[in-house]
Amino acid sequence: MMSQQQEIAQRIRELGFRLTPQRQLILDILSALDRHATATEIYDQVQSVSPAVNRATVYRTLNFLCEIRVLVAGTISGKTVYEIADPTPHHHLVCTGCKHVTVLGDHHFEELAAHLLDEHDFQADIDHLTIHGLCQPCRAAASG
Amino acid sequence: MMSQQQEIAQRIRELGFRLTPQRQLILDILSALDRHATATEIYDQVQSVSPAVNRATVYRTLNFLCEIRVLVAGTISGKTVYEIADPTPHHHLVCTGCKHVTVLGDHHFEELAAHLLDEHDFQADIDHLTIHGLCQPCRAAASG
DNA sequence: CTCGTTATTGCAACAATTCGCAATAAAGCA
DNA sequence: TGCTTTATTGCGAATTGTTGCAATAACGAG
């Protein structure tokens, strides 16, 4: 049984890339946070531990890790946020009222993906969708 | 019969906001373009017509018009793009291979929205979703 | 363990986006 | 038409995100 960190390290190397201390640090931070964070939040944490790490490196690392799907990026109230990709696909319902984020399983979306493939020959990459809307309490507050 | 521009003007005023020349100009540009554009593209066009308009104004206007749903924002290959909100909801399939954008009707998503409301008490705001994936030609190229 | 290849970093300049604040001007009203 | 209110703009500066390039260091080979 491998830790998540070890699996990620292996994935990076298998793809022919290098596991640098900077990349490890950013993964550690995101792992410890255990929630989504903005680039700036991550950069600040990096700074507090290793002030030598450059801002550009943080941005490049975040983009890199998204490309190889170690991280996923989403948009919550206009800001780009990053988190470690969960091995089991899931989605986020973001309430535009209270900003609360609900995690949602995948089954609703499999149907949709199947439709898109059948009818449009499009292989949708629905791993981590972020859907905005209003949760029940906020809906009640808005109409009340 | 009102023009789209007139409807938008009315909407802005009904909500208690003001219709300024800057806002009109940006709406005119987006309307003439008739496709999505980045903030920079829009700013450049604004400059060529009215060099006095400030860059900050363009950004603020774009955000403002999104908030009142006159515009919709999406992300295409990492860049934020804006376009005038179509009165009939539709969605975009963006191919991560060739970057081609397919416009899609709403019916696949109504079902999904219904599920989310029934089972999660969440009123999903699925007006303009951007779904990434691979189109048929790119899929063939990738596996071939 | 040492060496070579080359992916990755730091740097510094640049581009994009946001913010506070005083000046301006839309919209309603007399 | 002129006055009042206050949403909106322009400006300058700070913050955030990107890019080219030379220096560095990860990792496989010997």
Structure description:
The structure is a homodimer of 144-residue chains. Chain A is an alpha+beta fold. Chain A has two domains: 4-84, Winged helix-like DNA-binding domain superfamily/Winged helix DNA-binding domain (Arc Repressor Mutant, subunit A, Orthogonal Bundle); 91-143, Ferric-uptake regulator, C-terminal dimerisarion domain (Dna Ligase, domain 1). The first copy, chain A, has helices at 4-14, 21-33, 39-49, 55-67, 107-120, 136-143; strands spanning 37-38, 71-76, 79-84, 91-95, 101-104, 123-124, 130-134. A three-stranded antiparallel sheet of chain A has the order 1-3-2. In chain A, strands 5-4-7 form a three-stranded mixed sheet. In chain A, a hairpin with a 5-residue loop joins β4 (91-95) and β5. In chain A, α3 (39-49) crosses α4 (55-67). The longest helix of chain A is centred in the last third of the chain and has 14 residues, at 107-120. Chain A is globular, with a radius of gyration of 18 Å. Chain A starts with a helix and ends with a helix. The model of chain A has no long low-confidence stretch (mean pLDDT 89). The interface between A and B is medium-sized, with 28 and 28 residues. The structure holds a DNA duplex (30 and 30 nucleotides).
